[in-house]
Amino acid sequence: MDNKIDFVVLWVDGKDPKWVEEKLKYLPDNDESPENEIARFRDWENMKYWFRAVEKFAPWVNKIHFVTWGHVPSFLDVNNPKINIVKHDNIIEKKYLPTFNSCAIEVNINKIPGLQEKFVYFNDDTFLLRKVRKEDFFVNGLPCIEGLEEAISPVGDSSAFTHSLINNIDIINRNFNKHEQHRKYFNKFFNIKYGIQNIRNISLLIWKRYTGFKNSHLPTPFLKSTWDEVWEKEKKVLDETTSHKFRSYYDVNQYLFRQWQTASGQFHPQLAQGKGFEISDENIDKIQDTIEKQKYKMICLNDGNNISDFDELKSKIIRSFDKVLPEKSAYEK
């Protein structure tokens, strides 16, 4: 069995004047959508620590596929043999470009030339904090996932994200019978590793269809063949998402493929090995403490809206990362 595992990460330089100019050409007038607010695109300037962490904590990675509009961070050594720069036109049809929709990019990453069957998908706000093994992501050829369900609940922020989750579940319920899958893969959906969290799936048994899945916003293992299967069965939906230049209520996103792996039983049960934070004035001290003490194997630092001084918080996070990862990596010039 091929034991090679690739990493895939999406990145955008929201300050690139050429990118900004192109984005403004297509942005509707008077657009006030939360999908296009500054927090979606601004750069926390901590990407070099992502690469340092990969080198230190996951030196076994086969290849890093760096997916970008065309720009790359100034520090990045694009000649490093482990780095593959993937431009949007390498994976998305020209008629759909340019795109500023992360969902459109995500659903097409299985088209990356040379992508291994086993890969881990990162957003650019997800980082490794401690050593990880291949077995943290794949066991017996299957991705390690929490087979935990939940009820989707909009939070009232008018964002498209919850709508995408609902669209995902619509597709899952179209292709899978929840109770049949529970019977077939009982030990994966009701597993001792989940502990008290088994109550999630038990409490939702009264609903005969899936109401949603727990989605930890952390690096996620995938099988490329799963993405290929979803494209084969749901091409119309995925093409529709690809056609949207900005996030919309009609998109699906990368969680569809995770949920497909879960609903199909093609996963190894495992609890999430990290924690997600929304950066804010109130929790910046907790975030710094988490990074500096390396409390988890992985962390997500989601850009938030409750930030009074972006530059100050950015500097604090950079200082914390630099305490853990002070040495320049081979991925840097």
From TrEMBL:
Molecular functions per Gene Ontology: transferase activity, transferring phosphorus-containing groups
Stealth protein CR1 conserved region domain mapped to chain residues: 4-30
KW Transferase (keyword) present: yes
Keywords associated with the record: Exopolysaccharide synthesis, Transferase
Keyword ATP-binding found: no
One Pfam family recorded for the sequence: Stealth_CR1
Residues annotated as domain Stealth protein CR2 conserved region: 40-139
Biological processes annotated in GO: polysaccharide biosynthetic process
Source species, domain of life: Bacteria
InterPro entries: Stealth, Stealth_CR1, Stealth_CR2
Family: Belongs to the stealth family.
The protein's name in its UniProt record: Glycosyltransferase
Organism name: Ligilactobacillus hayakitensis DSM 18933 = JCM 14209
